[in-house]
Amino acid sequence: MKVEIWSDLTCPWCGLANHRLDQAVERFPHGGDIELIHRSFPLDPDLPSSPAVPARQMLKQKYGMDDAQAEAATRRVEVLAEREGLRPYIVLDNKKANTHLAHEFMAHATTQGKHAEARHLGFRAYFGEARSLFDVDALLELSDELGLDRDETRQTLVERRYRQQVQDEARRAATLGARGAPFLLIDGRHAISGAQDTGTLLDVFQQVWDATHPQLVQTLAEDAEAICGPDGCVLPADHAARG
Question: How far does CA 196 lie from the centroid of its chain?
Fold first, then answer.
């Protein structure tokens, strides 16, 4: 079963959704058969990459929120995240900037075999430590922590090798009907919007799994004269010949 999730690295609901998705995959009886793929969906492509602006300021400018509204809008997700073990989870007192380069770094990390690890590190660095993800130097720190080749990573980012891939992934999400992030797609057919709780994800996983993996039910004819014991039933040796 393939599960794709589109997210932005500075979206607080995406960070929570990433955590909940990990929990659901871990708890799902067939979690080992799930192929989890992270896709890029930069939410604020018009933001400059520098200087980063306080999240409080961006909420005022983009949505016209006052301080009280900004507090209310972000405190809810902070509380939910902290209840689920993400402590601290810094949203309102963080900074925002263009994340396109960060997504390009994630694409590079994927080619180096660090697909999920890079996303987890990115969310943890941003929401857990309020670290920048917006320039080459900041991303090289993540590269070092992932054990990637620093010079290769720098060259990749400077040359913008994965710019088109990031744009294509965001465009595909929009084509599928995504109007924001997080956005999940299961087996290319079942779409889920928003940071659904772990229980809801488990229910959807089970429904999709049951629909695509029908159980084989075998019944034994009444006249089969099976010999049944404590470990099961054995058909007579001439059963096939009788047909």
Answer: 12
CB neighbours of 79 closer than 8 A, spacing ≥ 6? none
Euclidean distance between CA atoms 174 and 111, whole angstroms = 24
* Average pLDDT estimate for 131-142: 97
The domains found in the chain, sorted by start residue, are 2-212 (3.40.30.10)
Taking alpha carbons only, the member of 118, 96, 125 closest to residue 40 is 118
Sort strands 35-40 and 2-7 into parallel, antiparallel or unpaired. Answer: parallel
What is the pLDDT averaged over residues 190-202? 95
d(CA 54, CA 11): 14
